[in-house]
Amino acid sequence: MNGEQDSKAAAAPLPAEADVVIIGGGVVGVSAALFLAERGIATVLCEKGRIAGEQSSRNWGWIRKMGRDARELPLMIESARLWGRLAPQLGEEIGYGVRGATYLAETEAELAPHIAWLDQVKSFQLDTTLLSAAEAARLLGRDDRRFEGALHTPSDATAEPALAVPALARYAARRGATILENCAVRLVERSAGKVTSVVTERGEIACKTVILAGGVWSRTFLENLGLSFPQLAVKSSVLRTTPAPEITPGALGATRASVRRRLDGGYTIARSGAAEFQLIPAAFRHFGAFLPILRSRWRIMTIKAGPDFFGPLGSTRWKADETSPFERVRVFDPVPDRRLLDDVMESARKLHPQLAEVKPVQTWGGMIDVMPDEIPVIDTPPGWDGLLVATGLSGHGFGIGPGVGLLAAQLVAGEAPLIDPAPFAWSRFTRRNAA
């Protein structure tokens, strides 16, 4: 949010009660607030800092079905439809467009997993196709056959995250949701196993339902309630460039550098999977669950021990009348890995001649909430009637966020869900532990 609406959101009085309180002002929380408000359900969204201040404005801006885990695809297909419906309703430019997405492969080894994925998801009847070396070259407007082939999905889309999520929040407010910035929720209170209220830094809000959409902060919040949740954080580094000639209108992925043309004519550039795994107390508790991710990405993922061990995502407890970590860190703004980004920028220039003269003008870091199987949890913890957790989007959250928000809204409203929510069950981790 910005300007006059910013100050109004921050200064809005705290409601004494609501039907639903949402914790977290990222794409999931904002989307859930919008869909609940559309249903006439009194909804208050509490954001500890500013709307989309963290990963929801720091991601790549891809809205893709391509490459998704098959368990996510039904929800992602619905989410893509929601983006297409919502974008023209917002009354603001968010850079949304169906421009296609392409995964480029420099070698047969890089192309193989794309071929395997296409075979795994053929029942979904996507418009994804496998491009030959010649077809990939034509798509890129070149004739050097630099790439062995590509996976291409014409119906995938892109948007500007820093514009889109705040615009969704303003639209949700116009539809009747109360959006509170700089208002951290400290605790969820319950009686006889049922939610009764939330305690914020500004006072208490009586409610029967809470949606926790806290992103990377969700595990910390849940641990303070006595709930063990195997979610960890990885740091991703991203850059944007000066304006440059168009390669293609859509998003281009490659092992060494992925690029998306921006509304301002520049590019958002990053490296898929290259992240910094933060060693904090929770990392040791849940290390076994995350070993498969670490083993599969050991060449591109850095494990780092440092001051973050005692930082805001570390081990901490607080009471309703005590300052929470969410008030100490309103917006988590991690330092990007500049050495990595220098290498990614150089790789992008080598992959795409149109970027030969481009310069980086901004770099940033973002904290991604990751689950052991890299798909979200959208479910109620055992013994917490009225608390729905919607988190752990594992770096896939911007595109699928509206779908997750709608599913969360439907579950708390008692409606038939748009897709089967079973793949996103909390119990999948308890079952694994029991085994």
What do these coordinates show?
It is a single chain. The chain is α/β, with parallel strands linked by helices and 435 residues long. It has two domains: 3-100 and 155-434, FAD/NAD(P)-binding domain, CATH 3.50.50.60; 101-154, no CATH class. 32% of the residues lie in helices and 23% in strands. The chain has 14 helices and 22 strands. The chain has helices at residues 3-11, 27-38, 55-58, 73-86, 108-120, 133-139, 161-174, 218-224, 281-285, 287-296, 325-328, 338-351, 397-413, 427-434, and strands spanning 20-23, 43-46, 62-63, 97-98, 101-105, 129-131, 149-153, 157-158, 178-180, 185-191, 194-200, 203-206, 209-212, 232-241, 251-253, 258-261, 267-270, 275-279, 301-305, 360-370, 377-379, 387-391. The strands form four sheets. Strands 5, 6, 7, 14, 15, 16, 17, 18, 19 and 20 form a ten-stranded mixed beta sheet that branches. The chain has a six-stranded mixed beta sheet with strand order 9-2-1-13-22-21. A hairpin with a 4-residue loop joins strand 15 and strand 16. The longest helix has 17 residues, at 397-413. The radius of gyration is 21 Å and the shape is globular.
